[in-house]
Amino acid sequence: MVFSRYLNGKRVQRAASLGAGRAETEIALLELGAVEHFDLFDVSSVGIEYAKSRAEEKGFGHKVTCHVGPISCADLNENTYDLITFVASLHHMEPLAETLERANRALTQRGIIWCANEYIGPDRFDYPAAHAAIAKSFFQQIPPGLRNHWHRELQFPTPQEVAEVDPTEAPCSSKIEPTMRHMFPALEIMPLYGAFAFMVFWGLNHDALYETPEGTELTRFILGMDKALTDAGILPTYFAHIIARKNDAFRQRALRPGRDQSTLLYRYARRTTSILRRLKI
Known about the structure:
Blueprint: H1 2-6, E1 15-18, H2 24-32, E2 38-42, H3 45-57, E3 64-68, E4 81-87, H4 96-106, E5 107-119, H5 129-139, H6 159-165, H7 176-183, E6 187-191, H8 195-200, H9 206-211, H10 213-231, E7 239-245, H11 264-278
Parallel strand pairs: 1-2, 1-4, 2-3, 4-5
Antiparallel strand pairs: 5-7, 6-7
Keywords: Methyltransferase, Transferase
Domain Methyltransferase: 19-117
GO molecular function: methyltransferase activity
């Protein structure tokens, strides 16, 4: 779909994946022939080495170049890539606007950014009380054998606990959608639901969930409830596919490092400047 609709069905000569991990999606794209060469970037060597070995096993190891190190230090040459992917990885990256700006500069004129299965929900999984209450109420109706055995009530980690386990876990995930809308005029967001299911899954016995008919049926029901609650406007979507086309205007309005120009203060400043310019003051 990405290639036929956004790249006119043409093979991508060179692509980059930021936060590639095991690069399973990227390897699949190479295997399909949709991409000729992938530059894989990740902070950990474990996933990257796995991806390289998988590519070699499949006979196209020469089509993968691996780079290990912080994404903020990734060597992204300008006007190089027809496609840059963030496969469930953008929510790990800070500073968000600067990461996206660097990716934009690295795109060719026809290039796109594809954020696949991206988490855009509350920062550090700090769910709003109203959202959490729905999941907690439903949790009480689940048979005990399908819940985990540690808590009688559905519990979530605190933002502090999330940060202690992984400092890069969703520090600014809720800002992904508004930031990208501000930075990329040609943007499409395809909701993938997930709010209700993501919250409820914190408290389930996952062994029973996947190994019993009752668990399979419960999973199907939860996903159906998730869709119904989102479609009714009761819960938002926490996950999405996001497609952004290269924005050439960045050269004229480059974001200053450390400044978020989507804030109220910057919007007010821009509006004031515009008024003063028209008044020739």
